[in-house]
Amino acid sequence: MSITNNLTVGTKGVRTTWGYHVKFLVNSACHIWGNQVWNTGDLSKNNWWVALITFGEGWHNNHHAFEYSARHGLEWWQIDICWYMMVFLESIGLATNVKLPTEGNKLKRSFASTNKFK
Ligand SMILES: [Zn+2]
After folding, report:
1. Residue range(s) defining the domain that contains residue 67
2. Which residue in 6, 18, 31, 70 is a FRET match for 54, CA 20 to 30 A apart?
């Protein structure tokens, strides 16, 4: 095996291992540490440092509240690299029918509106 093949195999191994660990990190750390913005009835939380290393997946409470949304970082300050890529793909016509939560959806999931009826 040549050195190029060794590098290719090594790079794929690192990339795959990194991908799995980051995915598992989101589903463990974001159910323990962070802030809960939306009333999802579970332990999901938004975690900024997980979001930074996972390109936006760390806005996990947002994801649980609006699982259909292509955008996880719903606030302007919530960095979401995956969303920025989606905007680019939509701008060149490679992504269509991109779904986002409406203001009505957000109101239904807000703590303020759910507490009003208790
Ligand atoms: Zn989760």
Report:
1. 3-116
2. 6
